Amino acid sequence: MSRSARWTAAVLIILVALGYALWRELGAAPGGSVDAGSPAARDHRDADTPAALAEPRARADLSPCPAPGAGAGPAALRGISLECAGDGTMMDLAPALADRPVLLNLWAYWCGPCADELPALAEYQRRMGDRVLVLTVHQDENETAGLLRLAELGVRLPTVQDGRRLVAAALKVPNVMPASVVLRADGSVAEILPRPFTDADEIAAAVNPSIGVPVE
């Protein structure tokens, strides 16, 4: 191989490596979602103390997390306790999701498609009322940033802080965000939807038939 050919090959290798690194940095993934990356080792940062979170929580003004139902809830989520982002209390996840259809939405503050989808989820919850519970699961250890993102969007859905991504692991959700999990009232998984939604009508069309709720 000539010297110029070797230089050309070397430059091509470098360009391919740089392109792959940029792809990973941007979190490219099929279907408009983003690569969720590696789970964190903790649910939130050391900086996210109760005192530091007080103002972001007040700004977000989230709806309360659900109270436990009478049943045991989804078997895969039993034993998982997460912090309710709205007030900092710990919530035993499975009982809180018992006896009702649930739409779990897995997202992170830095995920652009997640931010686009969250207002549609809030509108879907408004339409469904008590027939379906929408609970968002913030999958990044920067809890402050998650609260500020919700405040910015004006989305007040109940939210749990899950920096370790325990919910995704327990339910075997693909490693992309946003992703949604539809749970039937008996706790069984009806659908896993690793894709973003654009509006409440699209959410209802994808979710409601699998849980027996009419699409309005």
TrEMBL record:
GO cellular component: cell envelope
Pfam family, one: Redoxin
One of the GO BP terms on file: cytochrome complex assembly
InterPro entries assigned: Redoxin, Thioredoxin-like_sf, Thioredoxin_CS, Thioredoxin_domain, Thioredoxin_ResA/DsbE_sf
Molecular function per GO: oxidoreductase activity
Thioredoxin domain mapped to chain residues: 61-212
Subcellular location: Cell envelope
CDD domains assigned to the protein according to its UniProt record, in alphabetical order: TlpA_like_family
Residues covered by region (Disordered): 33-65
Record key words, sorted: Cytochrome c-type biogenesis, Disulfide bond, Redox-active center, Signal-anchor, Transmembrane
Keyword Disulfide bond: yes
Matching PANTHER family: THIOL:DISULFIDE INTERCHANGE PROTEIN DSBE (PTHR42852)
Name of this chain's protein: Thioredoxin domain-containing protein
Classification of source organism: Bacteria, Bacillati, Actinomycetota, Actinomycetes, Mycobacteriales
